[in-house]
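Q: What structure does this chain adopt?
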Amino acid sequence: MKLELHHQNLRIHEQIQRKANRLPKQYCIQFPGTAGQYKILREDHVWICCFWTLYILQKIQSNLIAIFTLINNNQVMKNFRGYKQSKLPKSDETISQTDPGTSCGEYLRRYWHPVALTAEVSTTPLQIRILGEDLVIFKTTENKIGLVHKNCPHRRASLVYGKCEKKGIRCCYHGWLFAPDGEILETPGEDPNSKSAAKLRKTFKLGAYPVFEFNGLVFTYMGPPENTPEFPHYDAFDTPEITKRPYRIEYNCNWIQVLDAIMDPVHTSFLHVQSSGIQFSKGFAEVGELEFFERGVQYLGCNTRRVDDHVWVRVNELILPNFTQAGSAFAADGTKTRYFGRSSFTRWVVPVDDNHCIALAWGNFGERGDPIEYNSKEGCERIEAGEIMDRPWEERQLRPGDAEAVEGMGSITAHKGEHLMPTDYGIMIYRRRIRKLIKSLKEGKEPPQPQHKKGDIIKTNGQDTVLRIPKRNIDDRKFIKSVGSAVIKMQFNFENLPLKERDKSIINNLSEMEKSGLF
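A:
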């Protein structure tokens, strides 16, 4: 009888032990012997089970199993954390708020920005919103472009109903006439000899901004007039064998959400291939090896992929505050040799207000850009966001593009709730730099312009290079990353050359690197 009970006792011990082994480590389980105390500690709960005889131990075996089940269930319930995370984290107001008087708004107002397509501007006034300001852009009958505050300073009537004339725009309400620079030319309803009207015309101006029309885009500078910088000239303006098409894309979200994507090379592998099907090319599916470069106000995200016997180096580019370029969208897929192909777009991401922004850009088509067959409105939309913009909801949900991804975060994303990873390093460093530049501006130091000195042509690095480099008997991930680094650093070495000479030198060196196999 004693022996039989002993064996039963061992079996119960084994059952309890098996249950205990499944418990998380924070439970403390003691098995003293046939008589003694069983103690289960779980955070603030303590169960103490005293078993003084083997008989009692056998009787409550089923109860112990129930206790273990309860513990497991409690642990599962604790994994649901919706209640504790129901409060929405805050946004980063320092970089997301751009209205007049805000820190980031002041920073952005130190630069030239595109605000409209030339094709949109006519003798019919157009109301636009930029950096939280309501404006009217128009063209006089002499083809001079004006950009002014929306409301007439007389009685606040909207100038979108104004009439464009030879010298400017005339308010519909009382006929006041304003020049493109805001000068009050006429106040016709007032006595010609009125001293108050004469004084107003002499001392007051309608709010207006300088404009510069270039290659189908209209740019403006909205900062302090005494700090007006030189209009920046990027090398991408003059890339040979490229046809440019101006385009405009509207986003219903904060500008930072759209800007982030250019410093996020990984998203192309998932959003544009694995999640939505192939929106550009199959080669984008490979995540590749990442490397980020910070060079003054220029930021580069280099993604180097292996596609069979080829190594594809694709470089995304951001020049602060909002100039962006990338490799091609459709010309490269990693399967054919390509030397220093240039960006699919040359683009600025401009805040409309805190909840909206626009991408104003040129699509680049030709031998060194994207295929000429994409030179259309729909082609530019696909280059910009992976899909056309005007689609039914069902299609957008099934095949989301960049617009769905960034707008789905909300009009202003909860930056404080992000969990940034090493692959987000490019986003981290450019945001950090903007914050520093904003802080310096508050302290009285003007932010740097893209050009180092007056008259400089700004050299850019957004590109695609595909080299035929079969695998070697070494760690291929490390090897292709070294290829990407070598390509980028070689580009930097030729940065000070004139544009045509620079491009030729880069292309020749890439060819030699491919032939020699030396990187």
